[in-house]
Structures are given as C-alpha cells and as structure tokens.
Design a protein that fits this description.
The protein has 464 residues and is α/β, with parallel strands linked by helices. It has 18 helices and eleven strands. The strands form two sheets. Strands 7-6-5-4-3-2-1-8-9 form a nine-stranded mixed sheet. The longest helix has 33 residues. The radius of gyration is 21 Å and the shape is globular. The two termini are 42 Å apart.
Length: 464
C-alpha cells in the first residue's frame, strides 16, 4: 500500500488542525475537543473514555486536570504537539484501521506496539535481571531496526518501545530511526545513566522519543539492585530532562523487597515532584538461571498494590499502569500480537518480553509471517487466558499455560546463555498461583460489581 491513502491523509490533516486549535487555549478548548472526538466516534469505540475525560476536565481541581496542565506548562511545545499527533493520529486512528483490516484478511493479530531490543549490551548488571540471560554481544543492525519499523508502519503499527540490554548504548542509531520515521513514536526503557545534554538536544530536535527510566524506589533499594551510585545518576537524568522541558516516565519493577516502599504516597509524590508523566509498574518475573525466588511478590503484597494504584488514580497527577492488575481495561493479556510483542537482539520474535520462546526470526521471516506463526496463533486461540481479569498472565497467573502453548507451537527457548524449558519456568510460579488464585477470585467478584456501577453512570451521562 502507499504510505497514506487519501482517507488517511484527510483524517491526519483534520486532527492536526484540531490540535493546533487546542494549543491556542487548552483551558477553554480541551473540553470542546473531547466533545468533538465523541461526535466523530460514530461507532462508540471510545465512548466510555470520552465520558471519563469530559468529567475530569469539568473538575478543574481534579488530579487529571492537573496532569493535563502539566503537559502544557512543563513540556516543549514542539515535543508536546508531536506526541499528540503521532499517538492520536497515527498510532490510534490511522493505525487502527490498518491493523483491523489486515488482521482480518490474514487471520492474525497485528499489534499496536512492537517492543524490540537494539542491543543485549548493558552498562549495569542488575540483580535478577532477565535481560542479561541473552548475553551481552547481540545487536539488531540499524537497517534491521529500520526494516522492522517500515514493515510495522505498513500494517498500522506506529508505536515502538525499546528494551534491552540498555537501549541508549545505541543512542545515535535510535535518533536516526526517529529521523527516518517522524510519524511513529518511540519510547525507551532505560536505566537513565547515559542521558546527557547532547541526547536531550537530539530529543528536542526529533520530537518523537521519550525515555521511561527504571527506578526501584528510593536510593537504598535502587542501588541495592542496580549498583551503588545509580540512584543519583537517575535523579540527575530526571533533572536534566526537566530543565530541557522534555517529558519522561518511569518504569518500576516491584518485588517482595521493595514493594513496601513503592506502594506509598511518599514514593508516588516523589515521582510527581520530579515531573514524571507516567509510572509503569511490573511485577518481578522468575526468568532465567539467575532468577531470585525470594523476589517474587506474595499475595498480600500484590493485593495491597492493587488497591494502592487505584487510590492514586483518584488523587495523583500522574498516569499509572500496573501491568499485572490492570487487565480489565484491555480485556486480558496484551501479548502475542494482540496489543504488542517482543523482538530480541538476536531477531527472535517472542510473544511477550517475559516469554522467551519463539518459532520465528526477523532474519528469516517477515513480521506478517511471524504474526501467523504457530506460537502467535496459540496466543490468539487462548486469550483471554482467564475470565478473571486479575489473572491475565499465562506465566504468573495460570498454571503451566505458557508451557502448553510452547509445546503446541513447537517453539524453542531464545535464552542463548542458558536455555530453559517453559516447564522449568512455569514450575517456579506454582506456589504463587496457588495462593493468588483464591484472593483474585474474591477481589474480582467485588470489582465486577464496581465495573457495572461505573458503566451505568457513564451511560447515564452519555444519554443526557
């Protein structure tokens, strides 16, 4: 297909005009834009989100309005505009139609985002890091990364997320990719230690790159896992990004040892004070030969975090996402190409950043061929893995399910340093699943009633 069809070009032009109008007076025009989006959404695809955003904007004291004001007051205008253009116009609007059409035609799922590892190299050696299991000498070439993005854009994927290794080891190449693909948006998980003024200048120039800095709590817990002095380097990076009016987020891996720190108002307030735009939370996964069983999050701690994050969303001006407990908002697991997939630095196409098994490699297959492969078809067949949205994961929530899919697909371990079977991985999670299952059932019964009440209120608001 051509780069953009006439219909796509018209949509893009219309949205850009609206965003320019919004920029002139966000206080007055933001609610009007939400109304406009609601009228444009004739199929009601985002009706509930529209109602939520409208309610937030009508309450100028709400944490969500504070977050909106943070975006306009604290960030470079060009960077802000490019974020909205790429995220709303291309990743969401143009991309949605392409993904739906091509997915239906080919009998597969086409992802909203692709995670990829530019390199397996890293300048840190963090305790319990699964990424180190790939080794430290693998790289995707610049041309290979470029080809992945070219293929992805053709199929409607305009969001790319770098993992590793430490992606910023490849700073120059990552900026080159941003230059070549101005309509895509690029996010990078990073330890933050390689962010300097030159890289800030590059981000301001390309406008379509945002870092998500990994931080494990405050200084003691961060340095305990990532090495002495790392915490202060992270703080320096955050301050430098803020001084350059650049947005950033944080990524937090919560474990049995740091969750009591992370799950506090003191910690989230610290992130807000540092002007983080978002905070993504991931539970520790027992992956690889160097996994630490004691870091697995026990049931009582996971339940606590479930409640804490929901309270933050009522009061804190920061976008939070808990990937183990937020499946209700996306209908279950998002891996296997349903919303995202992972390509490691060896080119192996994996269903999830935590599921290191594959039957496809980008050096041998196109992305579309990988999406149609037996491993990805297994995910398409079994998702959602559980009707209980607090048990979405085929590794940490549903006993031996990943192992079953790997066997059915004939996939192989992509752990080049110390290959492990999916049975070995799944066996480590049995105790956690046995204890979390009953608690998840209890919590989900309560949550289902709350969801029905929320839906009823939204429908009433929409019918006014």
């Amino acid at each position: 297909m051509s780069k953009y069809s006439p219909k796509e070009a018209i949509k893009a032009f219309s949205f850009k005009q609206v965003l320019k109008w919004l920029d002139k007076d966000p206080d007055t025009n933001a609610p009007k834009v939400v109304d406009w989006v609601g009228k444009f959404d004739r199929k009601g695809t985002v009706a509930s989100q529209v109602a939520t955003y409208k309610a937030a904007m009508e309450d100028k004291d709400s944490n969500w309005w504070q977050l909106i004001r943070k975006v306009w007051n604290n960030y470079d205008a060009g960077v802000r505009r490019r974020f909205f253009e790429n995220f709303i116009i291309y990743a969401t609007t143009v991309g949605y139609d392409r993904r739906r059409s091509l997915g239906a035609k080919n009998g597969c799922m086409i992802p909203w985002a692709i995670l990829l590892d530019p390199t397996s190299a890293c300048n840190l050696r963090c305790k319990g890091c699964w990424a180190a299991e790939y080794g430290h000498s693998l790289n995707l070439t610049l041309d290979e990364i470029d080809d992945i993005v070219n293929q992805g854009e053709e199929m409607g994927t305009f969001m790319y997320i770098y993992t590793g290794g430490e992606p910023l080891v490849r700073k120059k190449d990552l900026i080159t990719i941003c230059e070549r693909h101005p309509n895509s948006y690029f996010l990078s998980f990073t330890n933050g230690t390689l962010i300097d003024q030159q890289f800030c200048d590059d981000m301001l120039r390309v406008q379509n790159f945002i870092p998500a800095i990994s931080i494990e709590g405050f200084e003691e817990s961060t340095d305990a896992r990532r090495g002495k002095g790392t915490y202060q380097k992270i703080i320096n990076a955050m301050d430098l990004l803020t001084a350059n009016r650049l947005p950033f987020g944080v990524s937090c891996c919560y474990t049995s040892q740091n969750i009591d720190t992370i799950a506090t108002d003191e910690y989230i307030d610290f992130l807000v004070e540092k002007r983080a735009l978002f905070a993504w939370f991931f539970a520790y996964m027992p992956i690889g030969k160097d996994y630490v069983k004691e870091l697995l999050v026990p049931t009582d701690k996971r339940e606590k975090f479930f409640h804490v994050v929901r309270e933050w969303r009522k009061t804190k001006p920061i976008f939070t996402m808990d990937f183990m407990n937020d499946a209700e908002y996306v209908g279950g697991c998002i891996a296997g190409g349903r919303r995202y997939l992972h390509i490691n630095a060896n080119g192996d196409v994996e269903p999830c950043v935590f599921a290191h098994y594959s039957d496809s490699n980008i050096r041998e297959k196109s992305l579309l061929e990988a999406y149609k492969s037996p491993m990805f078809q297994q995910y398409q067949t079994h998702i959602p893995f559980n009707d209980n949205m607090l048990r979405p994961c085929p590794i940490l929530d549903n006993k031996d399910l990943l192992a079953k899919m790997v066997k059915e697909a004939g996939a192989k371990s992509t752990n080049l340093e110390a290959p492990e079977t999916a049975d070995e991985l799944c066996e480590r999670t049995h105790d956690v699943i046995d204890t979390w299952g009953p608690k998840a059932a209890e919590l989900w019964e309560v949550r289902k009633k709350e969801i029905e009440e929320i839906k009823a209120k939204r429908e009433a608001a929409l019918n006014k």
